[in-house]
Amino acid sequence: MLDLARDHLPSHLTTLARRYGNIYRLQCGSTTMVVLSSADVIREALVRKWSDFAGRPHSYTGDLVSGGGCSISLGDYSEEWKTHRKVTHSALQRCVAGPLQDVIKQQALKLRQVLLDYDGAAVDLSEDFTVAASNVITALSFRKQFEKSSTDLQKLHGCLNRIVSLWGSPWISALDSFPLLRKLPNRPFSKLLDEVTRRDALIRTHLEDFKHVLSRSGYGRLLNALNRNTLTDTHVHMTMVDLLIGGTETTAAWLCWTVGFLLHRPEIQDQVYEELCSVLEGRYPQYSDRRRLPVLSALVCEVLRLRPVAPLAVPHRAVRDSSIAGYFIPKDSVIIPNLFGAHHDPAVWTDPYKFRPERFLEEGGASLSMLLPFSAGARLCLGESVAKMELFLFTAYLLRDFQLLVPEDTSLPDLKGKATVVLKATPFRVVARPRP
Question: Which residues of this UniProt protein bind heme (predicted)?
Answer without folding.
Answer: 381
